[in-house]
Write a structure and sequence with these properties.
alpha/beta, 475 residues, 22% strand, single chain, 6-stranded mixed beta sheet, 16 helices, globular
Length: 475
């Protein structure tokens, strides 16, 4: 079970940290956590932390002078003024348990991030069930290209830095705003972007109504002086506008009444190009360097968010056109010895799978082979039929399943990857399960040919299949 978020808010954390200088980050090597540790170090805090394994991220922190431990121990709490933790951390972590026992203040990652971001002027929070990392990366590239020295926190590695963050100035702060456990309700956006709203995170949100209410609360944090950037092709996003007191800016592909929309869409080898029409006027033409119709929508969101920040239109267009993606979002990683291209993608929700495979079909010259790892038992169980449809109705030629990644859950549902595979097979799509990552890698490579595409897909540890392919079967 995940740990709870704290909700001290800016004033509460300011009071906790007043006159205190030593912060400990439990899970310091994680996405976002390492960025917060880095920023805190730059602000003069004495920063230390724990992570299970050494990595390039933890080495970078150590090179700055941050102390990183690789074995958890209560003694690390000596002299610590506050512990920042990720909710994914187990409650029996020795440092967390000891800090709680003796009264060292505990602050959740989301709460601390909300506190940190208040120092920035333009605070762009990118939310949505799908597309957050891609759109955050796109906005990051625009701001980077515009040379405005942005600070960025993304959920995937950025090609500008090789890490999931850019630590820059205090004028522009773009951040990925995740809805899980209402974490984004601790953030303080001045510009709240919502890409789409669907039912997900079934272990926390029990209905679509609950998740819609959460997104509504998120955009309203921006307040009457803030801006909500909403996708008007998404009905749930559109309804959010009914209860927002600030300025609303809209984008859409299909709804031509939106403030920012696309016209004259064409595809070249699966990569779209189109005109951006802003407030009924064609302002620029963009040819994307990432495939798929969904990236037209992401580009419109990025354009809208950067435009309200005052970034010049030509700089926005150039930045979006040059953007080539973030890590694990249709990322090409290698070519096999038999000539197949290998990609990895983070898609783990049925809509994401459908979107990714639709884009992949447009650039695949041969057969399309998928290795997929379902993420969490609750999501697989509750969205079972949608998962089946997303693969059975796709252009994939074959799907190889590996075991479900449990994350924080136990299998109380009696669900399995083989159940998905069997159902998909009955609908005429070639599908099977692999007993291990090694078996999945060997099978998908041995059954592929030159010009084929292999996509290793999922949000868990299925990336190990890629590493095996690179080590044993790549050029």
């Amino acid at each position: 079970m995940a740990l709870p978020n704290t909700h001290f808010g800016y004033d509460g954390i300011k009071k906790i940290l007043e006159g205190k200088r030593s912060l400990f980050f439990a899970g310091i090597g994680g996405v976002s956590m390492n960025s917060l540790a880095h920023i805190s170090h730059l602000r003069g805090f004495n920063v230390s932390g724990y992570d299970r394994t050494p990595s390039d991220v933890t080495k970078k922190l150590e090179d700055m002078g941050v102390t990183v431990y690789y074995e958890a121990d209560a003694s690390h709490m000596n002299g610590i003024d506050a512990l920042i933790y990720t909710v994914a951390m187990p409650a029996d972590n020795p440092e967390y348990s000891y800090a709680k026992e003796i009264g060292i203040p505990l602050i959740s990652r989301a709460d601390y991030l909300g506190y940190i971001m208040t120092d920035y002027h333009h605070r762009i929070g990118i939310s949505g069930t799908h597309g957050k990392s891609t759109t955050t990366g796109m906005i990051a590239h625009v701001l980077y290209h515009a040379d405005v020295d942005p600070t960025v926190m993304c959920g995937a590695p950025l090609k500008e830095t090789g890490s999931a963050d850019i630590i820059g100035g205090h004028e522009y702060f773009a951040f990925e705003a995740c809805e899980y456990m209402d974490s984004f309700l601790d953030f303080n956006p001045s510009i709240a972007v919502v890409l789409n709203v669907e039912l997900d995170h079934i272990d926390y949100f029990h209905s679509l109504g609950e998740i819609c209410d959460s997104f509504s609360r998120f955009i309203n944090i921006a307040g009457e002086n803030g801006i909500a950037v909403l996708n008007f092709d998404d009905e749930n996003c559109k309804h959010l506008a009914d209860h927002f007191s600030g300025k609303i800016v809209t984008f859409a592909i299909s709804d031509k009444k939106a403030d920012h929309t696309a016209a004259n869409i064409e595809y070249s080898n699966g990569y779209p190009e189109f005109d951006i029409v802003s407030y009924k006027k064609t302002v620029t033409h963009i040819k994307l360097s990432v495939p798929g119709e969904h990236n037209i929508s992401n580009a419109l969101a990025a354009f809208a968010a950067c435009e309200v920040c005052g970034i010049p239109c030509d700089k926005i267009a150039e930045g979006i056109a040059e953007y080539t993606g973030v890590g694990r979002r249709m990322e090409k990683v290698c070519k096999t010895k038999n000539g197949s291209d290998v990609y990895t993608d983070y898609a783990h929700h049925p809509t994401e799978i459908t979107t990714t495979l639709s884009g992949a079909e447009k650039i695949c010259r041969g057969k399309l082979h998928i290795v997929f790892q379902p993420h969490t038992f609750s999501r697989t169980h509750e969205l079972f039929d949608d998962f089946v449809s997303s693969f059975a109705e796709s252009g994939a030629d074959e799907v190889t399943f590996v075991d479900i990644y449990p994350a924080r859950e136990t299998n109380i549902y009696g669900i399995s990857s083989s159940m998905l595979s069997d159902k998909i097979s009955t609908l005429g799509k070639k599908s099977h399960t692999a007993a291990s990552f090694e078996e999945a890698a060997e099978y998908v490579v041995s059954t592929s040919s030159p010009d084929d595409m292999i996509i290793v897909m999922g949000a868990g540890d299925v990336i190990s299949v890629v590493e095996i392919i690179k080590r044993k079967y790549s050029l």
